[in-house]
Amino acid sequence: MEELETKYVTPLTEAVTGLLDYLWTFGIQLFTPIQFIAIFVALFVALVLHRLVRRVIKTVAETTEGRLTRRALATAGAISLPIGWVIGLWIAMGALSAFGQPITMVRLFASLINAWIIIRILTTLLPSNSFANLVSWTIWAVAALNAVGLLDPTILWLDSIKFSSKQLNISLWTAIQGLIVSSMLLWVAYHSSGFIARRLEAATTLSPTAQVLLSKVLGIVLMVVAVLVGMQVVGIDLMAFAVFSGALGLGVGLGMQRTVANFVAGFTMLADRSIKPGDVIEIQTGEGPTYGVVKALAGRYVSVRTRSGTETLIPNEILISNPVTNWSFSDKRVRRAVPIGVAYSTDLEKAMALAIEGAQACPRVLKLPAPICLIRGFGDSSVDLELRFWISDPEGGVANITSEVLLQIWKRFREHGIEIPFPQREITIKNPPAPEVEAPQTPE
User: Fold this and answer.
1) Which of 66, 176, 430, 436 is 20 to 30 A removed from 247 (C-alpha atoms)?
2) Based on the structure, what is the number of domains in the chain?
3) Nearest by Cα to 373 from 404, 327, 419, 342
4) CB atoms within 10 A of CB 36
5) In angstroms, rounded to a whole number, what is the distance separating the alpha carbons of residues 296 and 278?
6) pLDDT tens-digit profile of 263-291?
7) Is 204 helix (H, G, I), strand (E, B) or coil?
8) Range of the domain at 73
9) Could you tell me if residue 5 is inside a domain?
């Protein structure tokens, strides 16, 4: 019995007693009049400065252009009060510590306000609500631990949990640091690549292909650098991942070869400039021919906006390994050929002139090269003509301009009495059978 009490009861009693002593001491240090006075004085000074800062920000915002700048100024105006308050609290903490006064309550207020400021800034910058909530709860937890003086013991406890091997020795605290640093650097790299891409799009001296290629290369380089820097910051030896790199290469060769093939095909198309944003292409897919304008070139696919308004995502590998009709590869001018049939009794020269006139009446048809009409042959029911004309905007559609030209030709043919024949067949019956004659019926 005494052994059980010595082994279990006594350590538990000492732990509870130590916790109660800590809470009693913390409570005594927390509620002191001098700290209340320091907190309210810091708040009063922050309110006065807040009004002045908001006036200045309002004046600057009226003369500032740009959505991002206005958003930053609005956020600065909203957090100017807590920033002024927390600065006053840190000054009060220094003054109270110099005179040997407790600072527990002031530190609690300062930690919580610091957390609120950081959370407000991050929720403004982070697009994902779930990720913003995770960051918010993490910051609140760190602020609470710091306010009660348990942050340093928690860090020491996390640092004592280690994962060791022959080439790798890392603690749980080091892993958390690496995750935080890498996440921040990846976030900065992601937004930096987006900013660079927008700046490249505004550069008129670069072709669309060069803009996309440079933005993708810079984005990948920034991501890789962010990960490597994050690992170096926490002291992780990159040579320790040599075996992992070999396994990753084997996995890529076996299970991710299609993904890698699409990725490499995307860079190949950008390098040889065979397909670029704004091109009008036509390709055979599983659901038939796809015709549309290339809107974007991603790492794995090409986005093609069809005439129906939908966007078809075509893997890069298909565009590399299959024939593709690029209507605007070197020249956006496209010739269309429209077959027309007229009756044998028609004045062909007049019909050909009316067909050319109908094409010239459409605004999208180019004046040069001029439309022409040719006789292609003599069919069973009609003389076969072919009208050829050129357009310079295939992204606007080719079926609709063909329909418009045919409508104009139809109107002119109707006005001048030109007949568009339809197939007719004459059936001649040789040696028809004699009709059957019924014998007269005799009355009964």
Assistant:
1) 176
2) 4
3) 342
4) 12
5) 8
6) 777 777 777 777 878 888 888 776 677 78
7) coil
8) 12-149
9) no
pLDDT digits (tens, 9 = 90+) for 406-427: 999 999 999 988 888 877 677 7
Residue 145 lies in a domain: yes
Residues 359 and 392 in one domain: yes
Q: Which helix (H) or strand (E) holds 134?
A: helix 129-147
Query: Alpha carbon of 324 to those of 328, 364, 395: distances in Å?
Result: 12, 25, 16
Cα(104)–Cα(94) distance, integer angstroms: 12
Q: What's the pTM value of the predicted model, to 2 decimals? A: 0.46
Is 16 found in the same domain as 130?
yes
Residues 22 and 132 both lie in one domain: yes
Say which CATH number the domain at 291 has.
2.30.30.520
Instruction: Pick the closest to residue 218 from 236, 192, 198 (CA basis).
Output: 192
Angle of the 67-98 helix axis to the 33-62 helix axis, nearest 10: 160
SS3 at position 237: coil
Pair of tokens at residue 77: 């105006």
Q: In terms of domains, do 249 and 362 share one?
A: no
Neighbouring residues of 406: CB distance < 8 A, sequence distance ≥ 6:
338
* Cα–Cα nearest to 114, from 84, 78, 74: 84
